[in-house]
Design brief:
The chain is built from 8 helices and 8 strands. By secondary structure, the protein is of the alpha/beta class. Helix 3 packs across helix 6 and helix 6 runs antiparallel to helix 7.
Length: about 200
């Protein structure tokens, strides 16, 4: 950026893989430079928190600072979620749940933001801006999921600017409460061809 200018860096739309350990200043720098952050929320679900792998190996102060999805989202960084399979299972709804119920409450994001990071955000990070949405004329690549229940969920008490009352018209997503059954994939379509049918 110092050599070619911030605008040139933003236009390049760089992506960083495995963004795990970063502070607020780094998140703000990534946002300012237009860098997407590819993150794996399931890492926090498996190894985050005060007593698990990260804390044991990196210390009680540093361990819980890893996978700061909330700080990244608050700074305006484009988030792209994935599983890093085979490190964690290919289970997108578990990844969304992990971001919504991050081990560190201050790092939690809304279900809608986590869903967008696993769909549209991942495509944007791969420079496919037109993909990851259902719209007339869009590429017919999608999955059909069967949820146990649809809810408007705000697990974080800090989120109070929008209503969870179904009369508000906010579309529901599957209930991601830990322990609730996650949706089952029934059909996957890739560029118009059915590639999976349950």
């Amino acid at each position: 950026a110092a050599e070619v200018g911030v605008v040139a860096i933003r236009r390049s739309r760089h992506r960083l893989e495995h963004v795990e350990g970063s502070d607020r200043e780094t998140a703000e720098l990534l946002a300012d430079l237009g860098v997407s952050a590819s993150m794996q929320p399931a890492f926090d679900a498996l190894w985050g928190g005060g007593e698990s792998l990260y804390a044991k190996r990196l210390g009680a102060e540093r361990g819980p600072t890893l996978n700061p999805v909330g700080s990244m989202a608050a700074a305006g960084v484009v988030l792209a979620f994935g599983s890093d399979s085979p490190v964690t299972e290919v289970d997108p709804w578990a990844g969304v749940r992990a971001a919504v119920f991050h081990q560190v409450p201050e790092q939690r994001i809304s279900a809608r933001a986590a869903f967008a990071a696993h769909t549209r955000g991942a495509h944007r990070a791969a420079l496919r801006d037109e993909a990851g949405v259902l719209a007339p004329g869009a590429e017919a690549t999608f999955a059909v999921w069967e949820p146990s229940d649809l809810v408007v969920q705000a697990p974080d008490a800090r989120i109070s600017a929008w209503s969870t009352d179904e009369r508000s018209g906010v579309p529901g997503l599957p209930d991601l409460t830990p322990g609730a059954p996650l949706p089952t994939c029934r059909t996957s379509v890739l560029r118009g061809d059915v590639v999976h049918q349950a």
